[in-house]
Amino acid sequence: MKKSLAAFVLLFLLPATMPAQSGNVRLGFFGGWGLPTAPDEFTDFFNGSFTFGGELRYKTSPRTTLVGRVAYHRFAFDEEGARKSFEQDFFGEVTSFSAEGGNARALAITGNVVQQLNQPGGKASFFVSAGAGL
Predict the structure, then answer these.
(1) Do the domain assignments include residue 21?
(2) Domain that holds residue 64
(3) Is 90 within the bounds of a domain?
(4) pTM strictly above 0.70
(5) pLDDT tens across 3-50, in order?
(6) What is the 3-state secondary structure of the chain?
(7) Is 14 domain-assigned?
(8) How far apart (Å, rounded) are the C-alpha atoms in residues 130 and 111?
(9) For the chain, what is the domain count?
(10) 84 is a domain residue
């Protein structure tokens, strides 16, 4: 419950209390639900769970923006999925199965350069983004 309340505060209340941002610098927060998609060895043992993070954008020119992001991802351990995987791969039907496992957590830190291809202010914005991360 405490984690849910903390996530609510970070995602909804904190951005509403932040001071006005300058024209070249933007600070944002995001959150959602993450689902493991690959590899199979990971998706068999973990379920989806919450993800949240923040980003800082700095506009260096009307068409170019530098973006830094930090995101936290959590995937809940799936004991039933682990049991089924062991049944299929090793033992046949398992009548007693107990697994103690933790949740998988990942902290992603990325940096990007976003280059807008058309004139700013149009109805649609076309851009190219390139970056790297840990």
Answers:
(1) yes
(2) 2-38+49-77+104-133
(3) no
(4) no
(5) 554 554 455 544 444 444 568 999 999 999 988 888 877 887 888 888
(6) CHHHHHHHHHHHHHHHHCCCCCCCEEEEEEEEEECCCCCHHHHCCEECEEEEEEEEEEECCCCEEEEEEEEEEEEEECHHHHHHHHHHHHHCCCCCCCCCCCCEEEEEEEEEEEEECCCCCCCCCCEEEEEEEC
(7) yes
(8) 8
(9) 1
(10) no
